[in-house]
Each structure stands twice: as C-alpha cells, then as structure tokens.
Amino acid sequence: MRDSIEFFFFNLLHTIARRFSFRAAGKIGAFLGAMVFVSTGFRKKITLDNLSQAFPQAPAAQLRTIALGAYKSYGTVLLEMLWSGGQPAEVLKGVIRIPDRKRFDEVLTRGKGVVFVSGHFGNWEFYASPFTLHLGKPLTIIVHPQRNQKVNARINATRTQYGTAMVPMDRSVRTALKLLHEGGYVLLLGDQSGPKESLPVDFFGRPAATQRGAAAFSLRTGAPLIELFLVRQDDGIYDLMLEEIDCSGLDKYDEENVNELTRRHTAVLEKWVRRYPDQWLWMHKRWKHTEYYQSLHPLEESV
Q: Which of 107, 136, 152, 289 has a CB 3.0–4.6 Å from the CB of 146, allowing a cystine?
C-alpha cells in the first residue's frame, strides 16, 4: 500500500513537471522543497544537526538559511529530473555548460577509461542523460536502487533514455573493471554513508563511513579519477566543474593507496560543499557511524 501511494504521488509530480519549462519546473521544485522544510519535520533535525556539526561557529539563523536552501535544491533536483524524461537531446544538453571545455576534452582523449566521482550536489540526476550527451559516449553509473520498484523503474527509464547504463552496486565490480579496461566511462556518487566496515574518512571534521570503489577502480585500471560538480547558476543552468584527483605517490594498487586516494577525493568534495553548502544533500545520515568509530579510537589511528 505504501509503495502504491508513493508511486501515485510520484506520477502526479511527473505529470506536473512535464507541463512546464525547465526553468519553471526548477522553480516549482524549489517552492515544494521550501514548503516541506517550513511545514513538516521531514529530516529537519538531521539536517540542522549535520550543519551545526559541520559549521560549529555559524549562527543558528545562518544554518537555517543553508538548510532551507538544501531543501529547495532537493525539490529542484526532483522536479527537473521528472521534467527531463522524454525531452529532446539538444534540450537536455542545454541544461549543462562546460566552462573549461578544453580540459574536459583532454581528459576524454587520453586513450584510457575514466572514473568519474561526484556527490549529491547540484543536480546529480543530470549525470545521466545530459552529461552522457556531452560525453558523446555511453556512461555507466553505479547506483543504489530505490526501495520502491515502480518508482525505481520510472526513474531508470528517464536516466537511460540516451544510452546511460545503470548498474546496481552489488553487481558493479566486474562490470566497471571490464568497461574501464576497454576505455569506457564509469561514474559513482561517493558521498553516501557506507556500512560500519567501510573506511572512516574525515569529512567536515568527523569520521564518516566512506565507500572506496572509485579509488579502487582508478588504481586497479590506471584510469584517471575525475571529480565532477554540477553547480547551479542564477539562470538555472548547471556549470560542470571538474578536478582531477592527485594520484602522485600512489603508483600501485594496494589497500593503503586506495585508502589514501579515497581521502583525497573526499577532501575535494568537502571543499566544494563548503563553497556551495546549500547545493548539497544535508538531510542524508552521512555520519551515522561516527560515534562507533570514535568509541574505538581516534580517526588517525583507525585508518
């Protein structure tokens, strides 16, 4: 029953989003996100606690402003994703700009595969169709499937409409390694909490369980590790910013080097979230295992 109700409202939002322009869909999403923040308690406590821990010197009013912006951003992501289903290729390409196109093209022409890593920042859903269209070559994204199977199927239909492949995380290793060895492109969102057994990495001053897949794929295949950020601009368009993660000193694939490369790309994510804090998903339980790690021993000894 719960899944059916969720799917009904999901379809309702899909119908609404498809009736409007890209800019209008984003604004409606921001309005809905603001209404959720103002009128409900949905993950508000988690969000404000995460922010207070990340920015301990910031006044409460500033933290609430960032939190409101994060809810508006999430609403924007949802409505824009629903809007994007069935849109023409040229329309979807137009929602992303690449300011440093020369550097972007250079990364793609090295003759190797590429491991892209990002987070739930800006509109991460646009790494599917719009970003794939800019690549000019299919992209494979490693994902956590949605719990609701009907919602998951509808979202994946939108994500894969221009050739993007979605691979569940539990079946990703063999597929990703094969693609990278063949010169393909793989993308992971590396900012969600892993299980307790994951690597605890310092993120905003606290140990957070961090998946090591992106670093492992890069070091095992020799593919560059490129961190991506879709930064929402005032006109609603997203500027694609990229940073190549420094792999110097990490000349072999082993556990220590994988851990170090994971720390490096997590530090880059933190830098960008600090620049645009309202464009990151603060309502996620990113630090849910922090107390467990701290009960064992300090972060620097635990890794």
A: 152
